[in-house]
Amino acid sequence: MGVRIDQKIVGYQVVSKESPDGRVTSAPAIKGVSLQPLLPRPHELPGMTYKIKDPMSDHALYVTINDILIGEGGEAHRRPFEIFINSKNMENFAWIVALTRVISAVFRQSSGDLMFLVEELRSVFDPRGGYWKSGGKYVPSIVAEIGECIEKHLILIGLIKQEEPSEDLKAKRQQINGNGNGHEGMQGAKQCAKCGQMALIKLEGCDTCLECGYSKCG
């Protein structure tokens, strides 16, 4: 005979026929993990739009990041709330829509450091190979450049500070280039496994990245 359950199940009981006294043994209630509720969207949000021009495509990507104001008075600060990516190129439409929805959900749920999101996106490598931006910087994939746009925006709104190269890294750049500039895309350099830049060279017997400072000897 079936039993209809009209209320939410918050626990259960196990009846053991082998119990000598016939008592019912109870198991503890299982509680779900409570997620932080999504912030409601105001009617208007400030934001910025960034242009990504992939040389392998005829059409650019336009990345728009809108912010929400958290706090009041002097304690108020901006945080990313949502992201939109638009392009005339419909080839990547499905994964772009999926990516914007996932990133927007992370923006609305997370109240902590968003740099983990930047690092995850920047570590995505295109199996077909990346491309060179104007100025000589190598980008391993379009997704990685979207991550760079988010990082640039976080710096712009003051959520993170732009990291300056360490004195040791500056010295290594000067050792190779003489003036510390133009190290991206140097002839004979390999791709760094950490940051994806074509700036990994042999320096004093060690593989050294002149972009992020990664070093491996032996």
Structural class: alpha+beta
Mean pLDDT: 80
Tell me the series of helices and strands, N- to C-terminal.
EEEEEHHEEHHEEEE
**Number of helix segments?**
4
Beta-strand fraction estimate: 15-25%
Low-confidence stretches: none
Shape: globular
What can you see in these coordinates?
- There is one protein chain.
- This protein has 218 residues and is an alpha+beta fold.
- It has two domains: 47-156; 167-217, no CATH class.
- The chain has helices spanning 93-109, 115-122, 142-156, 167-177, and strands at residues 12-15, 24-27, 47-52, 61-70, 77-86, 131-132, 138-139, 190-191, 198-203, 206-209, 215-217.
- The longest helix is centred in the middle third of the chain and has 17 residues, at 93-109.
- The model has no long low-confidence stretch (mean pLDDT 80).
Q: Which descriptors would you attach to this protein?
A:
218 residues; alpha+beta; three-stranded antiparallel beta sheet; four-stranded antiparallel beta sheet
